[in-house]
Amino acid sequence: MKRVNKTVRLCCFIVAGATSFHFLGLDALASEGSGGWRPIYDEILLWINFGIIAFVFVKYGKTPLMNFLRGQKEKIAQDIERVEQKKEKAANRIKEIQKVLDEKDARFAIIKDRIVRQGERKKQEIVESAQQQSKMMLNDARRRIDSQFGQAKRAFRAELIDAAIELAMQRLPQEITDEDNDKFSDQYLASKLSD
């Protein structure tokens, strides 16, 4: 491989030198006062030099250059193949991950539906429990109201009776005569005897 690199460098140096002479213009290096054969001679020598360089390049540089290029081609092909394999592995991994994600999405949807159903059921239970509790509270409130109303009635009746007795106690002694007392006593005794 080192020999190939040296040969390629030598060939590149020769080509660069020949090209630079050509572009510098060899006509400028030739003497101006010479006869008419000199420019033709320089041009011919220029083409001969170019032919020699091309021959040397093709003869000695073709094989190492081709070997170098083939080696680079094989190396690049291997790199491309390695990258393709990595790409294929990555694509397979992405497919696996996508499959797992799809499965998790489906499982998540099932769990979500189950949670929503449980929530609806729990909500219905809470509503029913609240309705039962409100009925019990209403019944309890009605019983307490009825009880308080009964107590108020009894208290009012007792007060009314007390007021009537008090009023009767104030008026009766003035209204009842001895005859009335005898009549009441006879009625009382008659009712006791008949029992």
Q: What does the model show?
A:
The protein is mainly α. The protein has helices at 2-24, 37-175, 178-194. The longest helix is centred in the middle third of the chain and has 139 residues, at 37-175. The chain is rod-shaped and about 190 Å long. The model has no long low-confidence stretch (mean pLDDT 83).
Give the SSE order as H and E letters. HHH
Low-confidence stretches: none
Estimated share of beta-strand residues = under 5%
Write down the overall geometry.
rod-shaped
Entry summary:
This protein has three helices and no strands.
Keywords:
mainly alpha
Q: What's the topology here?
A:
Layout: H1 2-24, H2 37-175, H3 178-194
Helix pairs in contact: 1-2
